[in-house]
Design brief:
Blueprint: H1 6-29, H2 40-54, H3 69-107, E1 113-116, E2 121-124, H4 125-140, H5 143-157, H6 166-207, H7 213-257
Antiparallel strand pairs: 1-2
Length: about 260
């Protein structure tokens, strides 16, 4: 008859429950695989599979009962680490959606909004289009596999142990602020083309006041915006690749900052 002691049971729980908490938190907050349209059973199954593969290689802190206050604190901290790492990668996707939002507002498509299931709320149609483009590019460069590799590497950078997170939370906030700089950098070609178009329409209106600017301006700005987007999309690839690399390198860096 096989007998299991309480110490052995606690060791097994510590070896698998704490890594599972970080892994599931990252899967829930990561782009693409964390989309609400992905069934919860798929996310849980993927988390269990990664845990079974990774947990034997992760050293667990000895002498801490998983059901004690210290063990529950470590569990909560692992959830925080997973959410922070998923958010670090989400910054790239939010920057692309911000690019579409800025361009859509300048094109006059601010009223054309669609519901985005990945981030509950309404965003302009151009923003959702660029979000889909970035998701496809992320899968095309095997970003989902690199995401899992960064997750496995995070257990070496930040082992399972009690954390002190003030500096890490600040680093997370600073990385989140880069959404605006990246979004503005991606949208500059579109905004420049639309600014020139609006200036030209303003000059044309002054030269011919009888011209109906509403009948001419809206279709023209939409057409120029779509053409500028079509011309700029091929140049987005190297920028998106660089942003993906920065996001993947930011994941273990933010995990290390939570030490």
């Amino acid at each position: 008859m096989i007998s299991v002691t309480t110490a052995q049971l606690h060791a097994w729980l510590a070896a698998y429950a704490w890594p599972l908490a970080r892994i599931l938190a990252l899967i829930a907050s990561a782009p693409v695989i964390g989309n609400p349209s992905v069934p919860a059973s798929v996310k849980i199954g993927l988390g269990l599979l990664i845990t079974v593969l990774v947990a034997p290689l992760v050293p667990s802190p000895a002498g801490i009962d998983p059901a004690s206050a210290g063990g529950l604190l470590i569990l909560a901290q692992q959830v925080l680490v997973g959410l922070a790492m998923g958010f670090a990668m989400h910054v790239v996707f939010h920057a692309a959606e911000m690019t579409g939002e800025l361009a859509g507002l300048q094109m006059g498509l601010g009223f054309a909004t669609l519901y985005d299931a990945s981030v509950p709320g309404f965003i302009p149609i151009i923003g959702q289009y660029l979000g889909i483009v970035v998701s496809l590019a992320f899968l095309a460069v095997d970003g989902h596999l690199l995401l899992v590799a960064a997750l496995a590497h995070s257990f070496q950078v930040l082992p399972l142990a009690p954390l002190s997170a003030p500096s890490g939370l600040r680093a997370l906030a600073e990385w989140g602020g880069s959404i605006f700089s990246y979004g503005l950098a991606l949208s500059l070609p579109l905004l420049a083309a639309l600014l020139i178009t609006n200036v030209a329409l303003g000059v044309l209106t002054r030269a011919a006041p009888q011209l109906n600017i509403f009948a001419v301006g809206f279709p023209l700005t939409i057409l120029i915006g779509i053409l500028a987007l079509a011309l700029a999309l091929p140049y987005f690839a190297p920028t998106l690749e660089r942003l993906f690399i920065e996001g993947l390198t930011a994941m273990p860096r933010l995990a290390a900052a939570l030490r």
